[in-house]
Specification:
Elements: H1 2-12, E1 16-25, E2 31-42, E3 46-48, H2 50-57, H3 62-79, E4 85-89, H4 92-96, H5 99-111, E5 118-123, H6 124-129, H7 131-142, E6 146-152, E7 169-172, H8 174-178, H9 182-197, E8 201-204, H10 210-218, E9 223-224, H11 235-239
Parallel strand pairs: 2-4, 4-5, 5-6, 6-7, 7-8, 8-9
Antiparallel strand pairs: 1-2, 1-9, 2-3
Helix pairs in contact: 3-5
Bound molecules: guanosine-5'-monophosphate (2 copies), manganese (II) ion and sodium ion.
Residues 35, 89, 121, 150 line the site of manganese (II) ion (MN).
């Protein structure tokens, strides 16, 4: 609870900011958009890992306040990057809260960003936990927002569940990409094939080497993210990125 109290105060005090990791089109090598990733530099302490402070925020409905801030900040930033999409990680607790719908709508209207340029990233477990999650995703998609299933393959969703998943994009978890185990590579191939069967675009995460890039291209992944292209960057550094990353 102490961390949550400090985080609330930190958000008020402007200690949080967003970094942006480019998402690369594997056909053209150009940047199609960015994933927003929260950063907290705690004065006198240093950077706090996002998985740590997000988990602290999820202990209460404060995660909705944090999520609202991320949505506003990321869409405002992306509206200035003409045509680029922006992916925002939305926690399960925020997604099941009825306020999430207006939080997304308010961020879009305040920023002027086209709904189709916003991607809401959720993890696969969120879909099985609470029926409101699906309902909210259905409404957001009807309003033109896209949905991505993040970290796919790490939870216990069956591939057949993809048939009625309210999503547009599937992101293959980086543990399959970074592994040296050929079994993991075969699983990534199967996940990509299954996703394509259900008309999902596939994003490969965590590409660090040319060999990994070649593999996910052979799997027909449409897009990729990873340190090979770029780390998550401050907005000023995003503006200096070359248009072509491969
Ligand atoms: O930024 P990094 O790559 O270290 O992210 C670590 C984890 O924190 C990832 O699982 C990422 O999805 C999550 N994360 C980062 N920023 C946000 C955010 O704004 N909201 C939520 N819910 N999760 C985030
Ligand atoms: O869970 P999610 O996919 O939202 O998390 C994104 C996380 O992955 C962030 O912490 C980001 O910094 C990290 N990340 C992005 N690209 C790479 C990569 O190429 N290698 C590794 N190890 N981590 C990455
Ligand atoms: Mn993500
Ligand atoms: Na992920």
């Amino acid at each position: 609870a102490a961390l949550e109290v400090a985080l609330r105060a930190g958000l008020e005090a402007g200690e949080l900011h967003l970094h942006y990791q480019p998402v690369v089109d594997l056909r053209t090598g150009t940047v199609t958009g960015y994933e927003a990733l929260a950063r907290w530099d705690r004065p006198g302490v240093g950077p706090v890992r996002p998985d740590v402070f997000i988990a602290a925020a999820e202990a209460s409905s404060f995660v909705c306040d944090l999520g609202r801030w991320v949505l506003h900040e990321a869409t405002a930033q992306a509206a200035g990057w003409r045509g680029a999409s922006i992916a925002v990680n939305v926690s399960g607790r925020h997604l099941t809260d009825h306020r999430v719908l207006d939080d997304v709508r308010d961020a879009l209207s305040a920023s002027g960003l086209a709904p189709a340029l916003l991607v809401v990233e959720i993890t696969e477990t969120v879909l099985t936990d609470d029926p409101r999650a699906r309902e909210h995703l259905r409404i957001l998609r009807a309003e033109g927002v896209r949905v991505a299933i993040d970290d796919f393959g790490t939870g216990f969703t069956s591939i057949s569940a993809l048939a009625d998943t309210p999503a547009d994009i599937l992101k293959i978890d980086r543990s399959f990409i970074g592994s040296d185990d050929p079994g993991h590579h075969q699983l990534a191939t199967l996940i990509a094939r299954a996703a394509h069967t259900f008309d999902l675009r596939v994003v490969a995460e965590g590409i660090e080497t040319g060999e990994q890039l070649a593999r996910v291209r052979a799997d027909g992944c449409e897009e990729a993210q990873g340190y090979l292209f770029s780390r998550p960057l401050a907005p000023e550094a995003v503006e200096r990125l070359p248009a072509q990353l491969i």
